[in-house]
Amino acid sequence: MNMPSKLLLSALCLCALPLAQATEFEDYGRVVRVQPQVEQVNMPRQECRTEYVQVQQPAQRSAGGSIVGGIAGALLGSQIGSGNGRTAAAAAGAIAGAVVGDRVDNQNAQPGGVSEQAVKQCRTVDHWESRTNGYEVTYDYRGRNYTSIMSHDPGQRVRLRVSVEPMQN
After folding, report:
1. What are the Glycine zipper 2TM domain coordinates in residue numbering (predicted)?
2. N or C: which end of the chain has fewer CB within 10 A?
3. What b/e string do you get for 19-32 counting C-beta neighbours within 10 Å, with b at 16 or more?
């Protein structure tokens, strides 16, 4: 073997030396049991329903006839008599005119009645949901069982990082 080849072989062996002394490697363990970790979470929601209630409607009346009738009655009443009698006649005419004006104006008014009105009623109720937040995984590695919490179900085997350290005396 020539000198450059020996040098190259020596360099390769020197570079491979740390790899030969690696203290970590990957291996697989057989999954023995997977237990989901479940928690209960409250997700409140609103439930609504519509009810129909009876509502009393007031009569549809107008005040315009009373006002016009009162003014007209007061004017007519003030034409009768003299002095205090004229004032009393104007007051009586205003009252009578207001009553007559109201009756004339509201003779075709819609009477009050009962109607149905929709009323929406809502309330908040608890709604519990089950959520899986992890998995307790028990696996066998070289005849010993180990348990770990994982974020997912690993299936039939679990990938492991194995670390080897010398014992200190």
Report:
1. 64-104
2. C
3. eeeeeeeeeebebe
For 143, the domain range is: 20-43+127-163
The residues near 50 (Cβ < 8 Å, ≥ 6 apart) are 118, 119, 120, 121
Is residue 34 within 8 A of residue 139, CB to CB? The reply is no
Is-above-0.85 flag for pTM?
A: no
13 found inside a domain? no
Cα distance between residue 143 and residue 159, in whole Å: 16
Distance CA 136, CA 19 (A): 34
How far apart CA 12 and CA 20 sit, in angstroms, is 12
CB 122 within 8 A of CB 46: yes
User: CA separation (Å) from 109 to 16, 57, 63, 65, 131?
Assistant: 108, 13, 12, 12, 64
Q: Is residue 2 part of a domain?
A: no
